[in-house]
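W.,

You were right to be curious about this one. When I first looked at the sequence I had no strong expectations either way, so I just let the prediction run and decided to look at it fresh. Below is the sequence, 439 residues in total, followed by the output.
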Amino acid sequence: MKKFNTQPPSGTRDFLPADVKGREWVFGVIKEVFESFGFLPMDTPAFERIETLMGKYGEEAQKLIFKILKRGDQAASGEADLALRYDLTVPLARFFAQYQNQLPRPFRRYQIGSVWRADRPGKGRFREFYQCDVDIIGSPSLLADAEVILAITRSLSCLDLSGYVVRLNSRKVLTGLLEIYGIPSELRQATLTAFDKLDKIGVEGVIRELKSFKLPETIIDEVSTDLSKRGTEMKSRISASLSGSEGLKEMDELVSLVTPLLSKGEIEFSPFLVRGLDYYTGPIFEIYLKGATGAIASGGRYDNLIEMFTGKRIPACGGSLGVDRLLSEIKQIGDRMRENPTAPQVFLTVWDRASRIETLRMASELRNEGISTEVSLIEGKIGDQVRYASKRGVRYCLFYGSDEQTRKEVTIKNLSTGEQKSVKREQIAQTLKSFIQRR
């Protein structure tokens, strides 16, 4: 018999029932917050036409798109016509172009779903992962950018994640810096790519990359000095550029809008923050948890992306929460799972074949009353059924054997305490509800 490798593919994971329950709880908290801000739910397919995704993210990101080869008679060509979605933003732009006449303007949406990256797997890096996105299409106001940041930070607060830092910048600030340094136009994108790696490779690593571009030493020295400065120290330098000055005004206004409402975090200007996707045009941000590795959320303004699909310039901004990193940081997941276990509240034993119909009827009655109930799939061997229920973590086990049927009663056993109580058949749902509410 051929032995199969049962591990999930590299860069992906299996999720056990408790993991899924914990993730669903997090989704529920985030959805409630997003909807409290007026965001509407929507969804798109897991894959898109390849031309929808290509040319939107930048050269580095484009390499990480999972392409889907043509199928059937055309499979031998080796060509791809579809691709798994890289993020939820570009599919949103396509979605908006298709349904714009049916959508409110501005359009506030949220979406929770899987995305795929053909990345090298590593610690905390996966090829398949969830994103929770909020976006506003149709508003140029910085109020929209503020609402996106506040929706995400409120989600963190509601998940009891405090001590976060919102790092804020603008693509206009970056354009200003490139102008001030005198970076040649043909090297500007490569320079931004190097800046984007600052957190990973440090100042020395960024300088090594810039030196490989054969930039003049005077530029290298300027950049090297500035990379170690705080954002506030860079403001006067950046304001010498018209683009940089415009970006600083955006930053100052956003900071004034958001700062008073960050009860569990803080916001800071980060002039070398890049966000490596080409579609960003204005304010950009990343959110970090103190003590955690990597950004837990990010986003920005992308006023040109929708135009690629509609032919009309329509302003837009948005942000995304990385659920997988969230789950690794949320301490109360274990507590929530103890409160809302994966096991049902009640387990119904099956005495013999003749009692099948009545057992299913009783289970249906309990479920109609909102009591989660599992029916044993084996008959007889009551001891084995009880051991199974106990192993599953069920709290109440029900017995309806021949003696109980004669008395028209049901025996309830608390598997945690061993206590038993017999109640009339017609009172079973009411009695169980009182037990469950008493916990």
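Here's what jumped out at me. The chain has a mean pLDDT of 90. And, maybe more interesting for your project: Residues 343-438 form a domain with the Rossmann fold fold (CATH 3.40.50.800).

Coffee later to discuss?

I.
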